[in-house]
Amino acid sequence: MIDTKTAPYAALLLRVSLGILFLAHLSLKVFVFTVPGFVGFMGSLGLPPFVAYVTMALELIGGLMLITGFHARWAALPLAALMLGTIVSVHGHNGWMFANKGGGWEFPAFWLVALLVVALLGDGACAIRRARTA
C-alpha cells in the first residue's frame, strides 16, 4: 500500500533530484562539450543540428519544470521520450553498463523509468502548479 502521508514528499524528492540532474547534464553539454561540440556530436550520429538544440531546450525547460513542480508530471513525459531517444541513438549500441566505453544504456534507462514514475505518481508536495488529471 502507498503511504499517503509521505508519498507527496517522495514525489517531490524524485522530481527535484531528476530536475537537478537534467540541469547538470545540460551544463556538461554547454560548458564542457560546448554547444557547437554537442551539435557536432549529434551530427556525427547522423542527426540534424536542430535535434541538439531541442535536446538542450528540453533538458533546460523540463529540468526547471521538475524542480519547481510546474506541471511536472506532464514535463516528465517528453523527458522520458528524450531518454528513450538517447538509448536508441546514443547509448544503446554501447551495451548495458554505463561504465562501458561511450556509456551504456543503464543510466538513461533508469532515468526513463524514474520519469515515468513521476508522470504516474504526480507532482508531489510543494508543486507551484499541479498538472491537471483526468
TrEMBL record:
The keyword Membrane applies. Pfam families: DoxX. The chain crosses the membrane at residues 12-38, 50-67, 74-96, 108-128. One of its GO terms (cellular component) is plasma membrane. Keywords: Cell membrane, Membrane, Transmembrane, Transmembrane helix. Its main location: membrane. It is found in: Cell membrane. It is a multi-pass membrane protein. It comes from the Bacteria. InterPro entries: DoxX, DoxX-like_oxidoreductase. The keyword Transferase does not apply. PANTHER family: INNER MEMBRANE PROTEIN YPHA-RELATED, OXIDOREDUCTASE CATD-RELATED. Belongs to the DoxX family. This is LysR family transcriptional regulator. It comes from Pandoraea terrigena.
